[in-house]
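Ops channel
N.P.: pipeline sanity check, posting one input/output pair.
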């Protein structure tokens, strides 16, 4: 992360930098913004899905667009254009979180994208001077006013890194969640029927529960790699107790963990469960900074997809999710029937 976006809290768990910056950014991502963010996500998705075409590529049309617009409109990070922001997002995410073989090309693309992003941000932030008078109620405008007061404890590069992080963490993970949850719902006729009915209800809680359970069957990522910073013991006192040496790489298996019957009774059954049981948004030191923004925009985007009349998977492999040999969904085509209405 450092060569790309500079010293950043996500690479420094359980440190002063992480505690300080995450606390600060959480305060600026205000709870009262969430209804507005959800409404904006819904309107953006509905407008993007309004087409007479009978087939829709979810990735190209909506799953990346919605989080991109959230970053731009709600966070206040507009970037030079959509294409550059999507390129920065893809390159940084692909290397920082998915480069399991240390591919030099992915690393180079990440560093180049981060360098371009920081250069653009420095110019953008210079144009916003004096920060104390920064207008707007988006996240970045709030950050600039706070930084200008010297109460934030952030210098220019600290501001740049945290603003860059708003983009890095928002788009690809959200897009993958939208694709995976939609696919899992459409694969199950009974779940699909329940989801469509719930999508039409004024009470969104039942629909949201379906989305998070669907994502359990195909999460954004099935495992993450971590490095033990000190000697540790996994599952201490159990029959599978395992000592871990300092410096050893550990694969935290998110996917299989969410099928542990100790936490998820009847794990093979699709049913509503407490949102706090899932590992979609991380846990402990790795808990996602923008988790509540994700709780708003992910299910709302999926809801708009399920509101399409006659929405369905295409026959054969027509709706197979295509990652194009990369880490993220690049193509997911579904069908719908504009002439139908939900019963």
């Amino acid at each position: 992360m450092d060569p790309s976006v500079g010293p950043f809290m996500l690479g420094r768990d359980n440190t002063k930098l992480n505690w300080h910056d995450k606390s600060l950014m959480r305060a600026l991502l205000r709870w009262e913004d969430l209804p507005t963010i959800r409404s904006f996500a819904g309107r953006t998705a509905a407008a993007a899905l309004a087409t007479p075409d009978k087939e829709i590529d979810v990735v190209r049309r909506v799953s990346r667009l919605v989080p991109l617009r959230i970053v731009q409109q709600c966070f206040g990070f507009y970037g030079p254009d959509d294409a550059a922001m999507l390129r920065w997002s893809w390159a940084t995410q692909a290397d920082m979180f998915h480069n399991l073989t240390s591919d030099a090309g992915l690393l180079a693309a990440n560093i180049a994208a981060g360098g371009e992003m920081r250069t653009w941000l420095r110019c953008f932030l210079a144009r916003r001077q004096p920060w104390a008078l920064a207008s707007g109620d988006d996240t970045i405008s709030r950050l600039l006013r706070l930084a200008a007061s010297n109460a934030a404890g952030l210098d220019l590069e600290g501001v740049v890194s945290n603003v860059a992080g708003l983009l890095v963490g928002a788009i690809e993970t959200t897009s993958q969640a939208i694709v995976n949850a939609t696919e899992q719902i459409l694969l199950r006729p009974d779940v699909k029927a329940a989801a469509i009915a719930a999508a039409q209800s004024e009470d969104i809680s039942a629909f949201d529960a379906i989305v998070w359970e669907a994502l359990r069957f195909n999460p954004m990522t099935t495992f993450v790699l971590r490095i033990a910073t000190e000697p540790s013991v996994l599952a201490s006192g159990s029959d599978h107790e395992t000592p871990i040496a300092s410096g050893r790489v550990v694969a935290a298996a998110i996917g299989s963990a969410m099928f542990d019957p100790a936490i998820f009774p009847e794990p093979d059954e699709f049913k509503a469960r407490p949102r706090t049981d899932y590992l979609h948004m991380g846990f402990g030191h790795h808990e996602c900074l923008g988790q509540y923004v994700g709780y708003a925009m992910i299910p709302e985007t999926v809801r708009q997809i399920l509101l399409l009349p006659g929405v369905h998977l295409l026959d054969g492999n027509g709706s197979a999710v295509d990652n194009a040999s990369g880490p993220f969904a690049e193509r997911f085509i579904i069908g719908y029937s504009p002439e139908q209405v939900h019963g």
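N.P.: looks fine end to end. The chain has one domain: 2-219+258-335.
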